[in-house]
Amino acid sequence: MASLDGPPIDWSKLARLAPRAIVLYILAILILRLFLSRFMEIDEAQFVGEVAFAWNYGNSHPPMYNWLVRLALELTGWNWVLAVALVRLSLLGLYHWLSFDTARRLGGDRAGVLALTASAFLPQIVWMSIQTTAHTILVISASIGIVHAFALLREGKGARAYVWFGIWAAIGALAKYNFFIFLVSFLIAAAMTPPIRRQLFQRRIWISIAIFIAAFTPVIVASLNAPLAATAGRMHKLAQAIGYLESFDLPRVGIDGLASLLISTFLWAGLALIIFWIGRSRDHPRPPPDGAADVRKLLLRTILIGLAAFAALVFIADYHSVAERYMAPILAPTAILLALSLPQVLGARNVLVISGAMYILAPLAVAIIALFGTPRFNFPFDGVADAIRAQNPTPARITSNRQDDAGNVAALLHWPPERGEASDIVLVWQGDDDAGEEALARLPTDAQPIGPVTRVTARVRNFNGELRTFSFQRYSSRLPIPDQNSGG
């Protein structure tokens, strides 16, 4: 990479170009997503039937993301694929802009550009968020929004900064409940850092508190009976053992869960840290960190306190599995912290080039997999929907043991739960075997078959050409369909 060394980098020029680059990147990914498939993947399909106005939704999710999907549906004429992609990718663009602008305000143009550079090495950002995830990208943006509001406060924005602090705190709470791990960690870290404590905890912080209470109180009131059961289902995922870590499992303590947490933390941020350390090793002498030491200390303490709190929960509750997405709000400031703490001169040119390659290669890899593999959002849902309509055009409620199967078929038919009501139910399942217990469990107790089992075999909608078989059967019922989100 030595051949990439050259004249000093014009950080100010790159910083001026950064907002336009973010917009172009998001537009390119949006166009690519719409080109690759007209069906929804699993995280997108979960919103079918879950966009009527409510203060809380199934699967222990607060309402903010569902509201955004409903708004996008209204704006796009209920084009589901466009709506869900527009919400997710707009939030991804918001994350990039907030990271860039926060780092720039805290450490200058170089820090802003390097924050974008570091994000290219965070798999949850550069890979997962361009193809899937929903609530996770919203809670990441809210966490960065808190830091951005603090950056405004450092600039002397006063009441405006506290208003934004309250808004982002409310958005985070309405996005995903694990946001509170980040928020509490941030506030504790601020209290532990004297210059930050004096700056943040002033009388005007009551502005933030008032905004947060006004926004979150209705959710608390509406959730008095439901959230514990729903959250228990969500926490059930943490209790599922990971095969290769079972040898670490001890009775009543989550040793294997701690190992899972460490692995997930490394997978979330390890690559970015390694690349920035290697890039920085090129410089002798190494440039001093950007921004103020107390800000870097605040961000580092926030991450460490959040990790420690999560680790304590996993250990005491004897949890086994910590997925990378669970770490999202805690590790959200990683790119900003790396940009401020590990600036570089010679290494920066190489890191910028590698970062640019990652931003190109990740969407390219997604496209190759979608075009030549068998990703779920290319299954022949249209063939299933056409067969259901041809057999009996009377609208029915669509359900399945796989939420994305039901969501895609219902959206294509414009039948419940996508919209409207019906008494009949059509049960859809994959394969040409009889419906298994998991699929039948989606039916009400009074459901009675009123149609034959029908098989539909069609090719996946890409160049792979693999055949996929779906089965469906119509039932009559007067009872509501059981909660499709049970079990977390």
What do these coordinates show?
With 488 residues, the chain is mainly α. Helices cover 59% and strands 6% of the residues. The chain has 20 helices and five strands. The protein has helices at residues 11-36, 42-45, 64-75, 80-107, 109-119, 123-131, 135-154, 159-173, 179-192, 194-200, 205-222, 227-236, 255-280, 293-317, 328-331, 334-341, 346-372, 381-391, 403-413, 437-440; strands at 397-400, 424-430, 448-449, 454-459, 467-476. Strands 1, 2, 3, 4 and 5 form a five-stranded mixed beta sheet that branches. The two termini are 47 Å apart. This is Glycosyltransferase family 39 protein.
Please outline the helices and strands.
Blueprint: H1 11-36, H2 42-45, H3 64-75, H4 80-107, H5 109-119, H6 123-131, H7 135-154, H8 159-173, H9 179-192, H10 194-200, H11 205-222, H12 227-236, H13 255-280, H14 293-317, H15 328-331, H16 334-341, H17 346-372, H18 381-391, E1 397-400, H19 403-413, E2 424-430, H20 437-440, E3 448-449, E4 454-459, E5 467-476
Parallel strand pairs: 1-2
Antiparallel strand pairs: 2-5, 3-5, 4-5
